[in-house]
């Protein structure tokens, strides 16, 4: 790691979350935020065409022991927002204005993987689809997010 990256204010957090070094300059204000680390979200791929991350079921379960739908929605929104930020190369601030999610089945153990792909990449908004799978490759949820792209304050 170069000195520039070692001195990044969120170096430890970004490393832990699996964020590639080329994305770090876009994340000097807030890193990956505070919710992602609490949920255990770990990025595997971050490109304009595809954002992939995993999240453990353990620690993100609801009262009957299955993955909490809100945790799945937070994973989806995280992936869609990161995808929108990468699309703008950090020049705009994506703000989620619509998130919908359909839960197809539960997950009670292991990790889930979210795969985010673009539906629309515009100048003022983006829309992405996020598919969430269990370790057996069964789809547990499908989400769609629209982000408004705001100028930095």
From TrEMBL:
Domain Thioesterase: 65-140
Family of the protein in this entry: Belongs to the thioesterase PaaI family.
A Gene Ontology cellular-component term: cytosol
UniProt-recorded name of the protein: Hotdog fold thioesterase
Organism: Galactobacter caseinivorans
Keywords of the record: Hydrolase
The keyword Transferase belongs to this UniProt entry's keyword annotation: no
CDD domains given in the database record: PaaI_thioesterase (cd03443)
Keyword Hydrolase: yes
Signal sequence bounds: none
Example GO molecular function: 1,4-dihydroxy-2-naphthoyl-CoA thioesterase activity
Xref: SUPFAM superfamilies: Thioesterase/thiol ester dehydrase-isomerase
């Amino acid at each position: 790691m170069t000195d520039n990256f070692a001195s990044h204010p969120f170096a430890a957090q970004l490393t832990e979350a699996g964020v590639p070094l080329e994305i770090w300059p876009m994340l000097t204000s807030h890193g990956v935020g505070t919710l992602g680390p609490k949920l255990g979200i770990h990025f595997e791929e971050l490109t304009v065409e595809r954002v992939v991350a995993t999240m453990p079921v353990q620690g993100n379960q609801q009262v009957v022991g299955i993955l909490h739908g809100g945790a799945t929605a937070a994973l989806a929104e995280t992936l869609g927002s990161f995808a929108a930020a990468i699309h703008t190369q950090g020049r705009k601030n994506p703000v989620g204005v619509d998130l919908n999610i359909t839960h197809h089945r539960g997950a009670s153990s292991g990790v889930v993987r979210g795969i985010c792909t673009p539906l629309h990449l515009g100048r003022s908004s983006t829309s992405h689809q996020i598919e969430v799978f269990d370790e057996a490759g069964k789809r547990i949820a499908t989400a769609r997010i629209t982000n408004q792209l705001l100028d930095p304050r």
